[in-house]
Amino acid sequence: MIDNIEKKDCTGCKMCADVCPTDAIEYQEDNEGFWYPVVDYDKCIKCGKCTNMCPSLNENRIEQKDEAKVYRAWSRNEKARISSTSGGIFYEIGLWFINNGGVIAGCTYTDDYKGAKHILIDDIEGLNKVKGSKYFQSDTSGIYKKVKEKLESGIKVLFCGTPCQMAAMQSYLNKNYDNLYYMDFICRSINSPRAFKEYLNELENEYGSKVVEVQLKNKKYGWQSLASRVKFANGK
After folding, report:
1. Residue 116 to residues 84, 209, 223, Cα–Cα distance (Å)
2. How far apart are the first and last CA of the chain?
3. What are the Cα distances from residue 85, in Å, to 110, 130, 131, 153?
4. Which of 47, 98, 100, 123 is exposed most, by the fewest CB atoms within 10 A?
5. Residue 111, number of CB atoms within 10 A of its CB
């Protein structure tokens, strides 16, 4: 079963749990804080879906494209551009989807800013939550099922995430949908969720207050500073 996959091959996309018909798969952190699948063999019916649909174990399931059209662009909305990680293009495309009755599957911080998870949003408030990169692993539990439900009801969906999450979505659906749009990025791998959580814990201890806002690649000191801005409840 999927818990036999080598850790070097597992991306922690969590698709195997969504595809399991008996909910026999959950996830545990390894010693570095990354998620790894664990199978409950009392529930497992050995159907093989978890291994047969895993994009890392079955690369032939993913559509390959040899050519790409390349564009460069940025948002003309200065507020959106400055508050984004880069040029604000995700915000502009997301805004189009919302204004045209679509939904976005994107990554938001958890309430304490010490984790990240994928959610579905359909308004500006939600778009501001999923705007901006989070440089550690996002929890995608259940997002594949939710996206499929929207697609089956005829709603346009913009699915944004890492390339391995895109591959997982393609494998889970097992067919093309005209109302599904993928948006990923060039990825250099992700950081441990545990490492990021411990980093914020250290800052809270240092400043004596809870974190209430995090922005990575903050532009206060220019576009090349790669600075992180963390705001605390005490105003620091």
Report:
1. 17, 21, 24
2. 49
3. 18, 11, 8, 32
4. 100
5. 7
Residues 197, 33, 54, 167, CA torsion sign = positive
| Distances, alpha carbon 88 to alpha carbons 78, 121, 150, 154, in Å | 9, 17, 25, 27
Q: What is the pLDDT along the chain (236 residues), one digit of tens a residue?
A: 898 899 889 999 999 999 999 999 999 999 999 999 999 999 999 999 999 999 999 877 777 777 888 899 999 999 999 999 889 999 999 999 999 999 999 999 999 999 999 999 999 999 999 999 999 999 999 999 999 999 999 999 999 999 999 999 999 999 999 999 999 988 888 889 999 999 999 999 999 999 999 999 898 888 887 889 999 999 99
140 is written with which tokens?
């995608």
Whole-model pTM: value is: 0.92
State the Cα angle at 142 between 139 and 148, rounded to 5°: 130
